[in-house]
Amino acid sequence: MRIRRVVDLSLPIDPTTQVYPGDPAVRFRPAATIDREGFNLLGIEMGSQTGTNCDAPYHFLGSGAPIDEVALELFAGPGLVIDLRGKPPRAAIGLGDVAPYLDRVEPGAIVLFHTGWPAHYGTLAYFDHPYLGVEAARALLDRGVRTFCLDTQNIDETPDARHPGAGFPVHRLIAEVGGVVVENLRGLERLDWDHPLITVFPLRLTGADGSPTRAVAIEFAA
To answer: What is the DSSP letter of 197?
Structure first.
């Protein structure tokens, strides 16, 4: 088995990383330097949902598994990209949007919603992203999908003063069946081959609601 290409689908994490409203900002500080201690060591402060991140069931379900107890099988599998570019701001992704893809769902599939919203990253418009509707989420759950990935800040609508939203119904649906959500992907337009292997492994943070994730897509040589 030979790897032809590895595509990074992750946001860089640094003090400029855009975070969900109210989440801790990223802070870096030198804890040691080559000049002073003979080696470099970085002190890092950030929230568990920083950058490209994975939500464990515990994020929205008190009895759900924390990130260190989620089955590793959920973090790697064949990718299915659902192309939703052109959806308007704060539009729900409905059953009609996902229906053409349902017959292509394989056991263990990792679904990736490609909205193109990273074009707005770093602006307030990034929070006006499309979001997954309950009916579409249920259809994918019924097909056995347990890993949901998207190139937006939130799988549910992100509320603000103008848009109160409806809470976090899709997060809760997925948590109730032990699934995971990976948010803030980028670079999905680079996945120009069928059946990419997707890996979204989080850090093993004990008892945590989630973790930053290094998401990649892997293409194997024929």
So the answer is: E
* Contact partners, residue 116, CB within 8 Å, separation at least 6: 84, 85, 86, 151, 189
pLDDT tens, 114-173?
999 999 999 999 999 999 999 999 999 999 999 999 999 999 999 987 887 778 999 999
In terms of Cβ atoms closer than 10 Å to its own Cβ (0-12, 13-18, 19+), residue 141 is middle
Global pTM value: 0.96
Q: By the 8 A CB rule, do 45 and 24 touch?
A: yes
CA dist 193 and 220 (Å) reads 10
If residue 193 lies in a helix (H) or strand (E), which one and from where to where? Answer: none
Range 3-19+47-220 classified under CATH 3.40.50.720? no
DSSP string, 37-83: TSS-EEEEE--TT-SSEEE-GGGT-TTSPPGGGS-GGGGEEEEEEEE
d(CA 168, CA 157): 8
| Euclidean distance between the first and the last CA atom of the chain, given in angstroms as a whole number | 9
For residue 202, give the DSSP letter. Answer: B
Structural domain spans, the chain: 3-19+47-220
